[in-house]
Amino acid sequence: MPVAMGDDKDAPTTYCRSTCKIENLSEKFKVTGENYGKQYSNIYFVRSQLMKDRIEAAARKKWGDDVLLKNLADIKSGEKCCIVGTLFKQMELQPSILKEISDEHHLQVQPPRSRFTSETDKLVLEGALQRISLTGNIDPQKCFTGSIVALLGEENVAGQFHIEDMAYSGLPEQDSLPEVDEEQYVLFLSGLGIGSKKEKTFEIQLLIDYVIGMLGGAEDHELCSKIVHVVVAGNSLAGETQDKESQTKAKYLTYKAEASTVQAMNDLDFFLSQLVPYVSVDVMSGEFDPTNHVMPQKPLHPCMFSSARRFNNSTFHTVSNPYECKINGVHLLGTSGQNINNMKMFGNISDSAELLSLTLNAQHLAPTAPDTLGCFPYYKTDPFIVNKCPHIYFCGNQDKFSSDIETGENNQRVLLLSVPAFVKTSSAVLVNLKTLDCQEVSFDLEWNDNEMREGTPEK
Amino acid sequence: MENFDSYLAAVDELVDDENKLVTYKLVSHQLALPISRAKQVLENYAKHNTGVSVVHTLTGKTSKGLRVSLVREVDLDEAKARLDHVVSSHPYSVQKTKLKDPNPLYSADYEMTKTTLFKCGSCSAIKYSGSKSLTEEEIQQMKDSMKKVTVEDTMVTTKNTSPKNATKKPASQKGITSLFGTKPQKKTSQTDTGLDQNETNKKKEVSTNQEKIQKKTEKQENGPAKQSTKKPSGMNAFVKKGKIDPFAMKAKTSPKAKNSPPKVKSPQQKSSAPSISEEEDNMEIDEVDSPPPIKNEVKTDDLLDEIENQSKKPNPQKKTTPKARNKPKAKKPRTNSGELPAKKRRRIQELSSSSEEASDDDFNDDVIPPSPEPLMAKSGNVIKVGGKNAHKKRVLKSHTYQDKDGSMLTEKKWEEISCSSEEEEPVTNSNKNNGGAPEQTIKTPSPEVKTALKKNKQASIMGFFSKKSSA
């Protein structure tokens, strides 16, 4: 809101940033009293139990109330029916520690892969008691291990289940988007990659200057004054800071060496300290951040931010990954991107927004956990099940910005948001809380002479 | 618009005379201008001085979204053409030389940003009232509360394990600290000392008496609580010192110092003791000032715990140790003592002084006695004072636990644990030796020291090997 001060020429207009109310709903992602001794089978069991009602309801909705829902054990050959269970994708190339050990003797060196899919991947449906292999109208590369699905079809003579149609649970219930008079924005940012060789230090500084109203003209200031919140979606530190080298060296050679994360954290603290006095910031943990590695990741400990933590509990918060919150009533849910990046490796969908849509429809944040994505061995609950449909469903650290609006049958309207890694694109995403419109904001140094060296990220 | 002209002059000074990269942030900061005024000033300046090179900030919209870029003046038009809609354009910086790459622009403001940090946006065009920083007072309060917690912890542990130590330690530390505080004095006195042993001894007596009294009074005054508060800080101080300035300490401990410890002691304590009492309130400071005593004894050790033990032991000794034995032994070590024993002596000094306190009759003790004495003292302690103290060791242990958020926290605490049987052995050996001929006893001290050192060294070496093998 512009505040006029004096006459036009001498008195530049200033704007006031309004505050926002943030309600952290991530309690369920908090793990205390870890017991890593449990078996992972429990999480699948719990997941299928919790999802059973929803998936059956979805099946009835899709194929009519008279559809024959059967247990896997009861199906008869040639009888058309609907079965419900957990998908499992048998993948030839899926990395397996057992395989690695046995292969050591043959000295087969596996080429590094970005995807582990192959032509021979097969789908299997697991019920509570048994499993059945699947054929028919289904693309294995668009399905993911761990998703709960309902399948319509019949068992053929070969003992396989021939699929005619399949259904996910669909979008969960959604609270209505609150009515707000003024436009408000949330800035999504991820993958700052501090400590990386390609670190975009200056671009980060430009971003900060822009957000706090230093850079740009009056129009920019007006826009930025509407940014009520900043979400840093993980990987604030670069993967390079996780230097494992020192662990393999003799201690006497490295005892004086400082972990590279220390400097990187200081730099991050430096940037955040400029930001937190002027806008509220949530810092999510990410794959390379100094916290636990498996999902759900704990918040970074505030003591690592020596100066920014002065604003701890005021405008500076470190939060878990996944993160769920309400900002002025707008429901946000998202991760730092591990779930989506992992699914990219085990399927051939490369559009992040599509994957986001898929996971939301499957009502599960990370179906591939615990199969290929590390996760805590829950045995009583599965916190990754999405109970409430968010308004903004995001994932960080993607190759590029993309977004989509997903609409559900019950008037749900969700913004699917793929937040690019800043270190790759030097851009952030601005989301309008009122309309759920979003736009990318990129920060570039156009230095033509050195374009070859500096390179604009898009090229 | 006189102001404006003066601003321009100021910018001109920065650019032309000081040859700086002048960014809009710098102008805003130096002239305390709102950010948009600063940009105007720069723009004006750039208009009037065509010779300078200008870097522009350009914001605009493209099909992809908003775009914020830094552009050199030469590229400005081209860059504008690439935008669908130019939102704003203003100079980012003005400088004499042409920049080959943009990084200097970042470094130019880095220091300024670093110092202003929280206030870096105070001149910006957007105000925000929603943030609340902790004030210095609050931070101090939190720190204090943290300290209290740790202090309480240590109190509990010490009380539980050995009340004796709890009460005595502070006194012993004081002794040590006083030693160090006055070290420079030592040296000077040492040079004098050789001949006037008797005098010095008398002095010692006096001083020791004074010390005793003082300690007593201190104890009374302080009560357990105060002592406990001191203790942790003292420990920390030790540890830190040990790590920080081993070399400084070495430098101070010249060979001379080694030779005449007991004598030196007395003057020091006279002087230092009262000062300590005065400074009691600021024990930390006191300790910080005084060089780390332990340092000298065992070089760069991680053996702090051991040292601790030793330093503890001597105190009880005051009451118990028989003087007669000490004297004969004392002389020999002096002659024999190479570097190692000398180092030991440091610690011994204190011990010897304490032993002297106990026996006022002895005047034979020369500079020498300290080194053998300490050992004796230890052994004596082990036997007489009772297993508990002797077998206890203070060790810096790290505890890892979860806080309520489930984060793992690691905290280092001093804990008392009973010594392993290995460690006890050497002590008992030395006892036997002590009982025997004085010569033996003389030898024993150094071997003990050596073994202690060896143990540590070896442990570290072993650690190295195991590490490697595992890697």
Distance between the termini of chain B: 72 Å
Total count of strands of chain B: 7
Question: What is the molecular shape of chain A?
Answer: globular
Derived from helix and strand composition plus strand pairing, the structural class of chain B reads: alpha+beta
Number of E-type strands of chain A: 20
Uncertain stretches of 5 or more adjacent residues of chain B? 157-206, 215-308, 311-344, 348-388, 422-455
The geometry of chain B reads as elongated
Rg over alpha carbons of chain B = 33 Å
Provide structural commentary:
- The complex is a heterodimer of chains A (459) and B (471).
- With 459 residues, chain A is of the alpha/beta class.
- Chain A has two domains: 2-30 and 173-241 and 258-454, Purple Acid Phosphatase, chain A, domain 2 (4-Layer Sandwich), CATH 3.60.21.50; 43-95 and 117-167, OB fold (Dihydrolipoamide Acetyltransferase, E2P), CATH 2.40.50.430.
- Chain A has helices spanning 41-63, 97-103, 201-211, 218-224, 245-248, 251-254, 260-275, 338-345, 352-361, 422-425, 451-454; strands at 2-3, 14-17, 22-24, 69-70, 81-90, 122-126, 131-136, 148-155, 161-167, 185-189, 227-233, 280-284, 316-319, 323-327, 330-335, 392-398, 402-407, 413-420, 427-432, 438-446.
- In chain A, the strands form four sheets. A six-stranded mixed β-sheet of chain A has the order 3-14-15-16-18-17.
- Chain B is α+β, with helices and mostly antiparallel strands and 471 residues long.
- Chain B has two domains: 2-119, Alpha-Beta Complex (50s Ribosomal Protein L17, Chain: A), CATH 3.90.1030.20; 156-464, no CATH class.
- Chain B is built from 23 helices and seven strands.
- Chain B has helices at 2-17, 24-31, 35-48, 76-82, 103-116, 136-161, 163-181, 183-193, 197-244, 246-252, 255-259, 261-279, 283-289, 293-298, 304-312, 314-320, 323-336, 339-358, 372-385, 387-391, 421-435, 438-443, 445-470; strands spanning 22-23, 53-61, 65-72, 85-95, 126-128, 392-402, 408-418.
- In chain B, strand 6 (392-402) and strand 7 form a beta hairpin.
- In chain B, helix 6 crosses helix 9, helix 9 (197-244) crosses helix 12 and helix 16 crosses helix 19 (372-385).
- The N and C termini of chain B lie far apart (72 Å).
- Mean pLDDT of chain B is 58; it is low at 157-206, 215-308, 311-344, 348-388 and 422-455.
- The chains are: A alpha/beta (459), B alpha+beta (471).
- Strand 2 of chain A pairs parallel with strand 5 (126-128) of chain B.
